[in-house]
Amino acid sequence: MRSFAKYITEGENTKPFAYTENPSNGYFSETIIQKINAMMGKIIEEDQQDGEYAVRHIRTSLMKLGLTFDEVPPMTEERGEISLPLTLFGGRFGKDTDTPHNEFVNDDGISHQREGGLSLNLTYEMTDTNQCQLRAKIM
After folding, report:
1. Alpha-carbon gap, residue 107 to 91, rounded angstroms
2. Mean pLDDT per 10-residue section of the chain, whose length is 139 residues
3. pLDDT at residue number 8
4. Distance CA 20, CA 108 (A)
5. What are residue 105's DSSP bridge partners?
6. Please, are residues 65 and 84 in contact by the beta-carbon 8 Å criterion?
7. Residue 90 to residues 63, 66, 87, 129, Cα–Cα distance (Å)
8. Whole-angstrom Cα distance, residue 48 to residue 44?
């Protein structure tokens, strides 16, 4: 039996873990976003009795990655679409290396690394059985 250290040096994945590729560090490549969208799709793959419960579950899962979004308006209509901007750990406020002395950085924590930032797009539709068909996607 191989030890863990030997497995790491001889294993297929010999590249050390890069902390810059972690979404909690603001690394949002298309592959990372696709994986997050797949995770949200798994949460809401079936029709929901309570759409707000599913949104709370999505919020909890995204918060584990440091992503937060504002309060979701009530889903009272037959169908609708909601777009919510995402922030990374609540955004940034303070000084950056190139911020003038009389200004502050105040943004979402994502848009300085990804043009336009990210948003959570929710679409919902009430079914004949009074359940909510919910879809979520980060764009």
Report:
1. 6
2. 65 51 74 91 87 92 93 92 95 89 91 90 92 94
3. 59
4. 18
5. 94
6. no
7. 10, 8, 5, 38
8. 7
